[in-house]
Specification:
By secondary structure, this protein is α/β, with parallel strands linked by helices. The chain has one domain: Rossmann fold, CATH 3.40.50. The chain is built from eight helices and eight strands, in the order αβαβαβαβαβαβαβαβ. An eight-stranded mixed β-sheet has the order 1-4-3-2-5-6-8-7, sandwiched between helices. Helix 1 packs across helix 4. Belongs to the class I-like SAM-binding methyltransferase superfamily. TrmB family.
Length: 233
């Protein structure tokens, strides 16, 4: 992986991700040259001025860990009244997303290739987000690695400070053990309420697209669990 395609981050001891040496296609590399100036945002530029970045004032949605970006792109196209910010550390996924977004002339999207905790701390204003999405994060299924799971009490409180009152944190996973962990964390989290009146898992909301990965898993009998929690205070 060449230096110009490396994610940005500040030094820390524990990460919720590892850099996987995915091979970048020529098209993904070219996407950085062609479309990064349009879609890219840098951790080291400090607080993001969203009205300047998007040229308007609109509800703001943040997705952490968008993978190859297909569902994030679909949501940006399906919800043109909202502006979307994506965070991803794997260059092939970033390259693919900005390449497709550029070809389809998507206007309501910005992308960080950086550590999410750093972006939250340095770039995203408090009380500014209408929705935060974390879909199918790395489950770190070995018990000794559970501390690397991104959904932890301290992290969801950091997200709460970035959500506007009434804003929603939406989590989804296809690992039942992680789903139970997420629910336990969120049920105990101050300032949140489960939007599912029964207090259980939610049905998939219409705005979350079904991925090819998810369809394949369903055919194999794998479950998917959604959780939506609203900031109350």
């Amino acid at each position: 992986m060449t230096e110009e395609f490396r994610p940005e981050y500040k030094k820390k001891s524990i990460r919720s991700f590892v850099i996987r040496a995915g091979r970048m296609t020529d098209g993904q590399k070219k996407a950085f040259e062609t479309y990064w100036p349009q879609y890219g945002a840098s951790l080291f530029d400090g607080p993001l001025n969203t009205s300047e970045a998007f040229g308007r004032e609109a509800a703001l949605v943040l997705e952490i860990g968008f993978g190859m970006g297909a569902s994030l792109l679909e949501m940006a196209k399906n919800e043109p009244d909202k502006d979307f910010i994506g965070i991803e550390v794997h260059p092939p996924g970033v390259g693919r997303l900005i390449h497709t977004a550029g070809l389809e002339e998507v206007k309501n999207l910005k992308v960080y290739m950086a550590d999410a905790t750093d972006v939250l701390e340095d770039c995203i204003a408090d009380n500014s987000l209408a929705r935060v999405q974390i879909y199918f994060p790395d489950p770190w299924h070995k018990k000794k690695h559970n501390k690397r799971r991104i959904v932890q009490p301290a992290f969801v409180q950091r997200l709460r400070s970035k959500l506007a009152i009434g804003g929603v944190l939406h989590l989804a996973t296809d690992w039942e053990n992680y789903a139970e962990h997420m629910k336990e964390v969120m049920d105990a989290a101050e300032g949140y309420i489960n939007t599912e009146s029964s207090g259980n898992f939610s049905a998939r909301p219409e705005f979350r697209p079904i991925t090819k990965f998810e369809v394949r898993g369903e055919k194999l009998g794998h479950g998917v669990w959604d959780l939506l929690y609203q900031r109350t205070e």
